[in-house]
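Here comes just one.
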Amino acid sequence: MKVSVSQTRLVGPPVPQEQFIPEHLFFYLEKGVMSGYYGHKTYTLSSGEYGIARKNRLSKQQDIPYDGDIEKIIFVFDEAFLKAFQKKHRSEAVRFNATESFVRIDDRSLVPAFIQSLKPYYNEKGQIDQEFFDIKREELLLILLRLQPTLAGIFFDYAVPEKIDLEAFMNMNYRFNVSVERFAFLTGRSLSAFKRDFHLIFGQTPSRWLVQKRLQEAYFLIEKKQQKPTDIFLDLGFETLSHFSFAFKKQFGQTPTALARQSKIPPASIE
């Protein structure tokens, strides 16, 4: 089977490589299959499909292996660009009632034609030259608003998250590998208010609680669900297997691999 190679063309300013979406993103999948977990729901895109991942949401994305390359184009609609666009075109924000974190666009004509029009603008690195960033982003945004005018309610809404139930939010989202500052922002709090409220609810610091919560879940998944350490550490918010193993041993006195053997997971599956 051919090994899939993943290629991403990013149009717009760079975005942090983390499980948080700070700006609206337009995804177009040229080849392959990809899956994204946005707002507690999984969305899958196949070749030729596209949509918008809304900002200020937690997300996990992965390319699904298949016999072929994976190619995607991502347009970043950052707030500065959107405000300039709105001023130029006198666009008004309308109410967008849907709460989905990923919005699919149902069109088989204008958007595919636009994607084809990008080809002359790619440089030798397969990226669009920076001087064409805003021109092509403006063109795409005009197309999207023509296809679905209510999208203005997403793009031109610059409000920050409102204060929400911190305990419920953290118990639902502790697996996401984002900073404490991001968690504070998403719960509608300053960092100092978040830490104060967090200690009142959980009795410890956010960083310590997150590690312990993730490790407890890891122990359960290995011992009770027979899952391999190598299959769960990323999903639980650990960046590397070595960091996960070190923290696990410090917490429980044994490595996750040792627990897996003790739980009678086949040795060949552990390594």
Residues 53 and 102 are 5 Å apart (CA to CA).
